[in-house]
Each structure stands twice: as C-alpha cells, then as structure tokens.
Amino acid sequence: MGGPEEAPRKPALVCGEIRTGLLRTHQSLPAAGALELLRLRADERVRVSERPNLHAVSPDVLTGVDCRLATASGAKVRVVGTVAAHAVLTEGRVLQTTAYFRAPAKGPEQRQPWDHYLVRPGVLEPLGRLPERGVAEAFLTGQQRPGELDLGTIAEQLLGNVMRHPLLDQSPPFKSGRTRLRWTALPSGAPGRTPSIERFTLATEGLRTVELRVPEDTEPAAIAGLCEDLALHDWLLTTLVRMVERSRLGSVDGHGAVMALRPAVDHLLHLWMPKARVDRALGPLWEVLEREPGFTRQWQTLVQRIRDQLALQAIPLLREALTAR
C-alpha cells in the first residue's frame, strides 16, 4: 500500500503560512545578491526574473513531520510526510517565507517507511481519512496545541535563518513590522467551478487569514504564489499606512512630514504591482479583492497624499530660487 508506483492522490486540502517583512539591509540587494541570499540548497537553483520587477524564489527545503493536525472538533488526526518551505525576495527589499503542504482525503491505514514519504515532497498523508474542513477551520483560527503541526514556526525559522545571512548589514532604512498570512484551499466542487475567496480577515498583531476554493487540478505552488502576492501587497499597504500615521501628515510642519515619508518614496512606492506573477487561472481572485476591500484604491489614495505634500514643499523652494535671480 502506498508504494512509489502508486498514482499520486489529488489534494483534498492545501494549507500554508507566510511571513513578510523588510530585508535587514540598508541597500536593496541586486540580482547577484538575491541569488546568493536564497541559495538554500546546493542541488537546486534559485529562480530569478527581472521583468516586470526583480523577483527571486529559493528552492524548496523540506521538513519531515510525524505529528497530529489540529481539528475544529478535537478529533485526533495523525499525519506523516514533509512540509515544503521557500523564501521569496522582491526588488531586493521585501523578504517572504512560506511553509505549506497538501494532503489527500485518505492515506494508508498504517505508517509507511520514510522512503514512501520522501518521494512525495510537500505532502502530508493522514493515517486513514482526513477531516479536511475541520482541519482547515482549526488552522485558520490558530487552534494548534502542543504536539500539533505549526506551519508558522517553520516559516518563522526560515525567515530568521535568511535574515541572519552575512550579506545583510542588519540596518534597514526604516522601521516596519512583519505580517503573517494563513491560508487554506479546498476543492471548489463540481467541474468547471471558478476559484473563489470564501473569507479574508485582518486580525490583530499582523495576522491575516484567507480561505479559498480552487479547482481540484490547481497546482499547490500556484496557490502559494497567489497568497504570497496577496501577503506582499497587504504588507506594503499596512507599512505605508503606518508610515503616514507616524508622519502626522497635515498636522506638523511640512518639512518634517516629508522627511518622515521619504523612505516610502525611496523604497516602497515602486513595489506596487498586483498580479504580476499570479497564475492566470487564479488572477480573477485579485479582482475580487480590488472591489472589497479595495487594495489598490487605498494605496493610490495614500500615494497621492504623499505626492501632494512633496509638491507643496517644492513651491517655497521654487519661489526662493526665482527671487534669488
């Protein structure tokens, strides 16, 4: 049962957790630096693309697990296999790490030798049936108890390892927080159904959750890519909102506000590029997010406020220059 020759089972559930934060270095990394930073394995290459912006993805690293999954009902579900994790660097400035797995609806009744699991990277097989809806609910609401799988810890450890790389001078150009995004994807049901976002929440302490329905032939890597794009732009928007709040735009002298907002102009404004690398089949989900809550609408409003402030500050300087002639 469950030998390598067996056809792979379609996933009944895909789960992941993402960490997003500013790279700890004053200058953004060029492509060569990104290659060195994300070389997590000697036997696989780092994928780098430079259009429409610089984007680097590390090879997956695997973590073997044999543990329980949290479930909403409290039922005990044991899974064995590997969790896949990788790091993503955008424009040499924003670092993300993702840990995720996919699981079939049913696994072998007995634990198999490790060889069985190692040829299925990123797959966790339950012993028996998987209560996929109960597992998804418990994962999104953070019901993990000691001894149960914690994807956030795997993503956090990878983020910490990359951030400690000797290439980084540990001097980011401005203060910012990190965000966490937990996501689940269940099959959308009948053939031909389009993907959908069932739930998107902004919780406290930088936590976001996303519940998706996707066609059953959707690649888990494509789902992870969509969620990384969402997490990146949510972090950009959150960081810019906090920066504008701290600048006290409109309530202090203009020069002070401009100096407080300068890091946004130097390091953030050019990073906004939703859907740049999202799988075409999942692209319509971004249109849903643009309608509600309206990511790009809020981003453009903030950017316009910053540009208006810069323009106002330029007027006195122009007047002084003309007077001095």
Provide key terms for this protein.
325 residues; elongated; 24% strand; disordered N terminus; alpha+beta; ten-stranded mixed sheet; single chain
Sum this structure up briefly.
The protein is an alpha+beta fold and 325 residues long.
Structure in words:
- 35% of the residues lie in helices and 24% in strands.
- The chain has helices at residues 31-37, 114-118, 132-140, 151-163, 220-247, 254-267, 284-291, 295-323; strands spanning 11-22, 47-49, 55-57, 61-69, 77-90, 94-104, 124-126, 179-187, 196-202, 207-214.
- Strands 1, 2, 3, 4, 5, 6, 7, 8, 9 and 10 form a 10-stranded mixed beta sheet that branches.
- The model is unreliable at 1-5 (pLDDT under 50).
Write the layout of secondary structure elements.
Layout lengths: L10 E12 L8 H7 L9 E3 L5 E3 L3 E9 L7 E14 L3 E11 L9 H5 L5 E3 L5 H9 L10 H13 L15 E9 L8 E7 L4 E8 L5 H28 L6 H14 L16 H8 L3 H29 L2
Parallel strand pairs: 8-10
Antiparallel strand pairs: 1-6, 1-8, 2-3, 3-5, 4-5, 5-6, 5-7, 9-10
Helix pairs in contact: 5-6, 5-8, 6-8
